[in-house]
Amino acid sequence: MRKRLIGVLVLGLVLGLCVQAEGIVPRLINHQGRLTDASGATVPDGDYFIHMSIYDSATGGNLLWQENQTIFIKDGIFSQMLGSVTPINLPFDRDYWLGTKIGADSEMIPRQQIVSSAYSFRAETASYALNAGTATYALNAGTGTQGPQGIQGDKGDKGEIGATGTTGPAGPTGATGTTGATGTTGLQGIQGATGTIGAQGPQGIQRTTGLTGAIGPQGIKGATGTTGPQGIQGTQGLQGIQGTQGLQGI
Fold first, then answer.
1. pLDDT tens sequence across 104-160
2. What distance, in Å, lies between the first and last C-alpha atoms of the chain?
3. What share of the chain is helix, strand, coil (3-state, %, to 5)?
4. Burial class of residue 27 (count of CB atoms within 10 Å of its CB; 0-12, 13-18, 19+)
5. Where are the domains of the chain?
6. Among 81, 103, 131, 193, which residue's CB has the most CB atoms within a 10 Å radius?
C-alpha cells in the first residue's frame, strides 16, 4: 500500500551537530515525522524499511547521498538519525533536496528542499531550515549536545489557496482525423404547399369558317335482297254480330 509522510513534529528535522569530547562534529540529521497510508490513516505499529536520499535538484538531478534503515514506527510516529549508517559528506554549499522511500513504494513526491541562511556544517554555530511548503519543518543546531525532543505542536491553520497561474499558450493544432462513415439517409421531408395557379393566357385568334364542300355523287343502288320467310299465320278473328231479320212480304 502506498504511504505518505504528512505533518511532522516540532523540530521534525534537526541537524545534530553534537560536539564530542575531541571536538569532532558528527554529521547526523535527526529525522522525525508521522507516516500514513494513501487514505490518510496512520500506519500500523511495526518495523518499516526506509530509504533516504539527498539530491541536488527538486526532480531528477544527481543522487549525492543515500542510506537504508529499518525503524520501528508506533502510532505513525517515527524518528531516525540520518548519517548513522552512511556518513553525510556533503559541503552544504548549494541547494539540496531530501527524498523518502518507504518499503517497496516509489519515492514520495515532492522532495523536501533543504534551505538555510548559514548553509554549512560548522562546529560552533549553524542554522538550517527545511521548507516543505508549510513551514512546519525546522532544522536548528548549535554548540553543545542535542537537546531532548520537544512536544508535538498544534496543527497550524490551513494556508490560503494560491493565485491561479496564467494560462499557458495553446498547443499546436492536431492533424485532421480521417473522414467518418457516411450517415444514414434522413427521412423525406413534408411535401410543400401547392403553388398558386398562374394567370390565364390570352385567347387565341378566331379563324373564319371554311366553305361547305360539294355534295358527292349518289352511290350505286344496291342489289335486291332475298325474300324473307313467311310470317306466322295470325289468329282467326271473332264472328261478326248477326244482322236483324228483314220484314215479311205482303
1. 999 999 998 876 533 334 433 333 333 333 222 233 333 333 445 556 666 777 777
2. 177
3. 0, 30, 70
4. middle
5. 3-142
6. 81
16-23: long-range contacts at Cβ-Cβ below 8 A with a sequence spacing of 24 or more?
16/81, 16/141, 16/146, 17/121, 17/122, 17/123, 17/126, 17/141, 17/142, 17/143, 18/144, 18/145, 18/146, 19/123, 19/143, 19/144, 19/145, 23/123
8 A C-beta contact, residue 113 and residue 97 = yes
Give the Cα separation of 64 and 31 in Å (integer).
Answer: 18
Weakest-pLDDT range from 18-22, 82-86, 140-144, 177-181 = 140-144
CA distance 196 to 219: 58
What is the grid cell recorded at 85?
Answer: 549508517
Residues 6+ apart with CB under 8 A from 85: 67, 68, 69
Q: How do residues 56-112 score in pLDDT, each as one tens digit?
A: 999 999 999 999 999 999 999 988 898 999 999 998 888 999 999 999 999 999 998
Q: What is the spatial distance between Cα 202 and Cα 24, in angstroms, rounded to a whole number?
A: 128
What are the strands, taking DSSP E only, across 42-89? Answer: 46-55, 63-73, 77-82
Q: What are 90's three cell numbers?
A: 556533503
| SS3 state at 206 | coil
CATH domain 3-142 topology = Immunoglobulin-like (2.60.40)
132 φ/ψ sector (left φ>0, alpha ψ -120 to 50, else beta): alpha
pTM: 0.42
Closest CA to 3 of 60, 56, 44: 44
Nearest to 7 by CA among 109, 134, 107: 134
